[in-house]
Design a protein that fits this description.
Order of helices and strands: HHHEEHEHEHEHEHEHH
Number of strands: 7
CATH architecture of the largest domain: 3-Layer(aba) Sandwich
Distance between the termini: 44 Å
CATH class of the largest domain: Alpha Beta
Strand content: 5-15%
Number of domains: 2
């Protein structure tokens, strides 16, 4: 959406410049037109990010958010989508029709790179999704401010008491219908040669407390994006399964974690055994 808006604004600016140049009989050709358009487009993006950067200094991230701001979340998601477009990243999603439409849910997936949350937010931008993320991400200027204002939550995995507060808050978001919640059960990016790290069972307590369905996603190729830029990159998201709320109520947290782990593992390794 933002790319389209900036394209239209750049086109209008270029046409107006063309009209003015014609009025004063200045030289004008197709190369000048293209150059002006590119210059206007880059200027629009630069001004947009400058405004976001300056705005981020006004955000008090110590003030706890209790609701999701649709306005800030829309800005965040559209900015991410624009960034992926400019980086020539194409996100493909399979099985989107499996995602529940009449209830809130918990989303879980494997974690390969910083492009994981970006790709999921972009592919599911019509869904109201809030991420549970590590505290360090909220310290990133502009990005952290947008995350905070959007209602995203920081989880301190080194402090059990604080982690449980975040888990309870996330469960309340689902139960109240405020938003869907996304969390990486591995707890950190997988920088090893293993296809999938062990899951932390605590992530699934969000679902057991909220008694909601769990949408299981398998992500592929996100770790290759940084090596491909500016060449084209393709990210693949597969909705592997949706564990219904009734099943979540009947199972222990550890068993749910094992089920989700094996479902993701079998899809990212195409059923092959880890050697």
């Amino acid at each position: 959406m933002l790319v389209l808006i900036f394209t239209v604004l750049s086109l209008i600016s270029t046409v107006l410049t063309h009209v003015l140049c014609k009025m004063y009989t200045s030289p004008w050709n197709i190369l000048t037109f293209i150059g002006m358009f590119i210059g206007c487009f880059i200027s629009c993006i630069a001004v947009y990010f400058l405004v976001l950067f300056l705005w981020s200094f006004t955000v008090n991230k110590k003030k706890e958010r209790t609701k999701v701001s649709n306005f800030h979340r829309t800005i965040f998601v559209e900015t991410i989508t624009m960034a992926l477009t400019l980086l020539n990243v194409h996100v493909h999603i399979e099985g989107k029709e499996k995602i529940p439409k009449d209830t809130r849910y918990l989303l879980v997936s494997n974690h390969l790179s910083n492009y994981d949350p970006m790709s999921v937010l972009s592919a599911l931008r019509k869904e109201k999704i809030v991420f549970v993320s590590k505290p360090e991400n909220f310290n990133i200027k502009m990005v952290g401010s947008l995350m905070h204002m959007s209602g995203f939550m920081a989880i301190d995995r080194d402090n059990v008491r604080n982690a449980m507060k975040t888990i309870n808050k996330a469960a309340d978001y689902i139960k109240s219908g405020e938003s869907n919640i996304f969390i990486f059960p591995e707890g950190t990016r997988n920088r090893t040669e293993k296809p999938l790290l062990e899951f932390r069972n605590g992530a699934f307590k969000i679902a057991t407390k909220a008694q909601c369905p769990i949408v299981v996603l398998a992500l592929s190729e996100t770790e290759k994006v940084k090596h491909n830029i500016p060449r084209r990159s393709d990210i693949y998201i597969k909705v592997v399964d949706v564990i219904p709320a009734e099943k979540v109520k009947e199972m222990r947290t550890g068993d749910i974690s094992d089920l989700a782990w094996h479902e993701i593992y079998n899809n990212i390794t195409h059923g092959k055994k880890e050697e």
